[in-house]
Amino acid sequence: MAQQDRAIRTRRTILEAAARVFGERGYASTTVEEILNRAGVTRGALYFHFSSKEEVALGVLEAQRPVDRLPERSSKLQKLVDHGMVMAYRLQHDPLVQAAVALALDQGAHDLDRDAAFRAWTEHMERILTEARAQGELLPHVDVAETAEFLNGAFAGVQAMSQANCNRADLGRRVSVLLRHVLPSISTPALLAALDLSPDRGERVFEEYRAESDRSPEPAVPAPRG
After folding, report:
1. Are 39 and 140 found together in one domain?
2. pTM of the prediction?
3. Do 28 and 87 belong together in one domain?
4. 224 vs 90: CA distance, rounded Å
5. Statement to judge: residues 90 and 199 lie in one domain
6. Which pLDDT tens digits describe the chain residue by residue (226 residues)?
7. Within-domain flag for 223
8. Residues 154/122/97/198 CA torsion (nearest 10 deg)
9. Integer Cα distance of 44 and 151 in angstroms
10. Total structural domains in the chain?
């Protein structure tokens, strides 16, 4: 177990170091040597976890995918809200998630599948919306695929605005505003009134997730730093 924990920490150290270098120099200009120097690990340690710079970058990009096993809710639309608000919270506090988003938008990273995380989020939201429809939470006209894609794009734009304006300090509020404008067009009125769209929802749900994960043998997303 100690060896496994050490391997997990080493992998995280490499990813965080790579994320900082990618952010400073861009993917195309970054070298493996620079990542090694920043991480303070041997070449063998890096290649134990990753076969190439591209694989390291894909590992960074993985950080922005939806968190598995968030606490279940009886309302699937609340589950949708929770995923968006938790992502907003992680973007505010986790440098690796911040770097993953920056790398996804790096126009110089031509060799990377930068759209994979966006596809994962769209598919994830589409599944939740499909569950919401099965429970009678959606208005009859809602197209779940179009709605999932729209929400994904809208979130990307809102987080970019928040980053440019105040380094994402107000991202929880901005995502709350986004949801308050969008959800009335897809949710049944009775359910809408019961949804918690508070700006601090992401922090509360993430802490609940962390507490549950601490009781589980499965590894959890590392706690945000800062």
Report:
1. no
2. 0.85
3. no
4. 6
5. yes
6. 567 778 888 998 999 999 889 888 888 889 999 999 999 999 999 999 999 999 999 888 888 888 888 999 999 999 999 999 999 999 999 988 988 888 887 777 777 777 888 898 999 999 999 999 999 999 999 999 999 999 999 999 999 999 999 999 999 999 999 999 999 999 999 999 999 999 999 999 999 998 987 776 555 555 555 4
7. no
8. 60
9. 42
10. 2
68, two tokens: 């598995």
What's 56's domain CATH number? 1.10.10.60
Q: What angle do CA 188, 176, 173 make, to 5 degrees?
A: 165
Residues of the domain holding 137 = 76-214
